[in-house]
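for the writeup, i need someone to sanity check this before i put it in the appendix. the sequnce is what the collaborator sent (i think, or maybe the updated version? ugh). structure was predicted straight from it, no edits. if anything looks off just tell me and ill rerun, i have time this weekend
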Amino acid sequence: MNDFLLKMKSLLGDEFDNFLKYYNDVNFRGIRVNTLKCSVDKLKSLVDFEIVNTPFCKEGFYLPNDVKSIGNSPLHHCGAFYVQEPSATSAVTMLSVQKGDKVLDLCAAPGGKSTQIAAQLNSTGILWANEIVKSRSLILLSNIERMGISNAVVSNCHPDVLCNSLRGYFDKILVDAPCSGEGMFRKNDDAQAQWSQEHVESCAVRQLQILNSAKNALKENGVIVYSTCTFSVEENEGVITKFLQENPDFVLEDSKVDFGRPTLEYARRIFPMDGGEGHFAARLRKLSENVSVPIYNSKLEKTPSVVTDFYNDTFVNHPFGDNIEVVGDKAYSVINGLPNLKGLPILRKGVLLGEIKKNRFEPHHSAFMAAKKEDCRQAVDLKLNSDDIAKFLHGEEIKVDTQLKGYTAVCVEGMTTGFGKVSNGNLKNKYPKGLRVL
């Protein structure tokens, strides 16, 4: 730790004492409103505490330190917000995602930045969220589902393999590279215990390799944002400088943000005294041509009637599109415009509708989470502080209108939270056991 502090003193000079004050005494917590499910004004009207905007994204807010167990809130369960350290939202802001973009989040777990990208896409284009560690990719998938994202591919792939398979496919790529985590030491004891100068240098080597893999998947005139949560010059300015030296067809460009402080002219650094934990981000643009991956339109077999009947009977106007694919016994609504996925370990490529079990169809939680209340033919809408929503999240049956029958969406304040099956005024709970509030 002493070696780390000596490096920080050399980096910050006269600001070092102020850095220590913030580093030791100020705890930054935040939430980001998920505009796929909830507007900023609506969330403000529903929470019982004051939230103040962060400088890093317009949907990001500081969370008061006296707010506890926010993960148990029905608003969290329905995906109205994502708990996210404030400055962690800065990199996606610098990526400047536009509707219709194809965007790759190459090192995506647990999913904060991926779900932020999805909100900016607003159900257009394609989000491809990749995570090399299998256990972390499952957490990523769970967060993609909770936030109601219908246009995501989730993969568990080595960056080099993925990016070579998808040459020239993406408009924008986020490389939130694994790092020494200096900016998160006080929140991550393991990162602090593992720190050494040798670890910093090995991280920088790996980060440059990942960035050099990412460039292959980028279109001409496409943009990469490289980011870390470390203060290390070797992992930040050092990686960007080496990358630009090795890749003269890339330029560092102005992301037109004013948070943090500039470095390398256009990159940005964030220190605790800037309003968040440690972060670095740089926006790079590719000037050269790249081979484009052809769009792959698979020839789908006729969809079994048990699937189409469920889709028609449960949802209005096919909210996830008409491209239905059955793999084994599972039925998916698949994103249009995908490349050939052969050989790539894909966890999800759209919305999992459910599973065929003999002659019946069992819906999946993700189908209802990706739907809006108005997309569902039947829905019960519960109040935020009601006993019924507490019972539902606990896994209990609840009483509902006796006119309802069959699969029914469960909403809180108009936002889908799951589903159940109604018979004789009783809603049999289908909320996944692993997500329940115990």
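DSSP finds 14 helices and 22 strands in the chain. The first strand starts at residue 30 and ends at 33.
thx in advance!!
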